[in-house]
Amino acid sequence: MELLIIRHGQSEADLLGVHEGRADFPLTGLGEQQAKRMTTYVAAQFPPDVILTSPLKRAKVTALLLQGEVGCQLIEERDLMEFNNGVLAGLSREEAAVKYPLPPNGRPPHIPIENGESELEFRFRAERIFQKIINHYRDYNRVAVVSHGGLISQFLRAYLQQPISSQHFFATGDTGIHLLEIKEDKRVIRFLNKLEHLSVE
After folding, report:
1. CATH code for the part of the protein at 2-199
2. Would you say 58 is a known binding-site residue?
3. Which residues are listed as membrane-spanning (predicted)?
4. What angle do CA 128, 129, 134 make, to 5 degrees?
5. Which of 8, 19, 148, 197 is catalytic?
6. Which of 61, 96, 109, 143 has the least C-beta neighbours within 10 A?
7. Where residue 201 falls among pLDDT bands split at 50, 70, 90?
8. Is 148 an active-site residue?
């Protein structure tokens, strides 16, 4: 079983300098171009048998473009949504720093942000969707997962069976692609954060 993990294209929040998270910003024009290049590359090199996507616009549109290219089933999975950043969603970083300043030593991992989730809850959600995918979708040869940078990093921690206290963060560029393979008792990383499709003219 292969897992093709894909981040969405550039969103409007990237240009506005705001906290995104659950704020539902659409893709920019560049983001759509990035997604189209990704879909052409994936369809030619790693066509999935099914696509799972976050329902947030920036991921859903990226997934729909991929579906249009490969023609497979598309399924929304709410657990693939980005970190629930509660009251910070959509706020500028400057406004958020004034209204909701972090505690002196940071927010403890078990304490949720107001109207949102804690880091521990976020990690557990990633573990839950990872287990769902490898069990409910195991009859597919290749499953594409379209999600967000933060969730993808947590998903990779789950895949690598890293402890809850792990400080590793896995960066993913706009429409970055990770390819993982589960072979019996082995979990293989084929590649991480592939972006070569963006350099194709």
Report:
1. 3.40.50.1240
2. yes
3. none
4. 105
5. 8
6. 109
7. low
8. no
